């Protein structure tokens, strides 16, 4: 009789979890997915708290918490090597918990009588684990362990799907962003169009400094409009840090801002620096890739500027050579050159031949 009752409970739970897993692919973001998961568990299992903990590098970080906060919620991030490996391997209950695990110690100190965890993983990815707790004694059915292990795989697949969908969306946004920046290089050879576009796309203040650390282009968001000098000072400090490779004395920080700086290179040469206000910004792979795209666009524009200047100098030399001859052979060409440099060739002009003395040497 007891066995049949247990089987009934397990099947009902399995059905509930299956319905929950089907809903997970309908959300737009990972945060929405995890929040739905934690809220569903509290509702279906009458748990007092549910937490979703994710693996980030060598740490466990709390992503979502549903229910009353306890001391565990304030303990994250926690180093993975201070926790039991079982958290990421299989369903683990309070009765079989590793006493040396940091999370177990916190729950024991909190006097949480009943809790269990199950991993969020599949054959390809290991995301983290879910913890469900009760503030009263609750009988846990051993057969549920396998059910939760399988459900953890379903959650991982739903997260794999969500991440893939987000990845495609980000790539699409990145392509649009790259096209918007490239349009600015077509419009002209200035930097301000690119800087304005970049600031709008990031919703951040952007400053471009030349290789002598002088600001040559910038766009500040509204809240930073009176902070230009302070932001330049912070950017200069970051550049000096990178150049020297040593810890520099940080200027008295009058504003609560974090500035990140990247070099803009072209043809093996340092051309300028890109400074971005990254205050409260998570530097994920997508953001880093966006920064790299922006640096490449700026590099193209700097090279384009140099080509334009070099071409103008060549044309100017050719113009002078054609003009200062005994007999002008092609007047139309001379007039074209004059228009290019906005020079009125029909006005009176004076020509002088000078020499420059440098020390004891003279140059004609």
Write the layout of secondary structure elements.
Blueprint (H helix, E strand, L loop, with lengths): L1 H22 L6 H16 L3 E8 L2 E9 L10 E2 L12 E2 L8 H8 L4 E8 L4 E9 L9 H44 L4 H11 L3 E5 L4 E5 L8 H17 L14 E8 L2 E9 L7 H39 L7 H10 L15 E3 L2 E3 L1
Antiparallel strand pairs: 1-2, 1-6, 2-3, 4-5, 5-6, 7-8, 7-10, 9-10, 11-12
Helix pairs in contact: 1-4, 4-5, 4-7
Gist of the model:
With 364 residues, the chain is an alpha+beta fold. The protein has eight helices and twelve strands. Helix 1 (2-23) runs parallel beside helix 4 (144-187), helix 4 packs antiparallel against helix 5 and helix 4 runs parallel beside helix 7 (285-323).
Account of the protein in words:
- The model has no long low-confidence stretch (mean pLDDT 80).
- A hairpin with a 2-residue loop joins strand 1 and strand 2.
- A 6-stranded antiparallel β-sheet has the order 3-2-1-6-5-4. A 4-stranded antiparallel β-sheet has the order 8-7-10-9.
- It has helices spanning 2-23, 30-45, 102-109, 144-187, 192-202, 228-244, 285-323, 331-340; strands at residues 49-56, 59-67, 78-79, 92-93, 114-121, 126-134, 206-210, 215-219, 259-266, 269-277, 356-358, 361-363.
- Helix 4 runs parallel beside helix 7 (285-323).
- The chain has 8 helices and 12 strands.
- With 364 residues, it is an alpha+beta fold.
């Amino acid at each position: 009789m007891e066995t049949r009752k247990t089987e009934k409970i397990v099947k009902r739970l399995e059905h509930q979890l299956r319905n929950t897993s089907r809903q997970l692919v309908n959300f737009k973001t990972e945060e929405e997915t995890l929040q739905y998961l934690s809220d569903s568990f509290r509702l279906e299992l009458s748990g007092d708290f549910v937490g979703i903990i994710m693996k980030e590098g060598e740490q466990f970080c709390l992503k979502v918490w549903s229910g009353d906060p306890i001391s565990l919620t304030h303990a994250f991030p926690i180093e993975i090597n201070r926790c039991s490996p079982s958290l990421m391997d299989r369903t683990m209950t309070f009765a079989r918990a590793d006493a040396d695990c940091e999370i177990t110690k916190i729950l024991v100190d909190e006097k949480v009588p009943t809790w269990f965890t199950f991993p969020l993983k599949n054959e390809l990815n290991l995301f983290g684990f879910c913890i469900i707790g009760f503030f009263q004694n609750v009988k846990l059915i051993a057969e549920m362990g396998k059910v939760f292990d399988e459900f953890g795989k379903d959650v991982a697949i739903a997260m794999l799907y969500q991440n893939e969908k987000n990845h495609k969306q980000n790539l699409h946004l990145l392509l649009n962003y790259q096209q918007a920046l490239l349009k600015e290089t077509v419009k002209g050879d200035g930097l301000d169009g690119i800087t304005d576009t970049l600031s709008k796309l990031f919703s951040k203040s952007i400053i471009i400094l030349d290789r002598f650390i002088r600001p040559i282009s910038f766009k500040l968001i509204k809240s930073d409009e009176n902070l230009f000098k302070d932001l330049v000072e912070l950017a200069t400090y970051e550049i000096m840090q990178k150049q020297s490779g040593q810890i520099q004395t940080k200027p008295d920080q009058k504003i609560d801002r974090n500035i990140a700086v990247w070099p803009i290179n072209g043809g093996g040469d340092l051309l300028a620096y890109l400074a971005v206000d990254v205050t409260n910004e998570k530097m994920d792979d997508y953001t880093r890739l966006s920064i790299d795209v922006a640096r490449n666009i700026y590099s193209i524009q700097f090279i384009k500027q140099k080509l334009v200047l070099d071409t103008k100098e060549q044309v100017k030399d050719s113009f002078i050579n054609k003009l200062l001859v005994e007999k002008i052979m092609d007047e139309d060409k001379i007039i074209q050159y004059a228009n290019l440099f906005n020079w009125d060739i029909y006005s009176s002009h004076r020509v002088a031949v000078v020499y420059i003395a440098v020390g004891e040497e003279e140059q004609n």
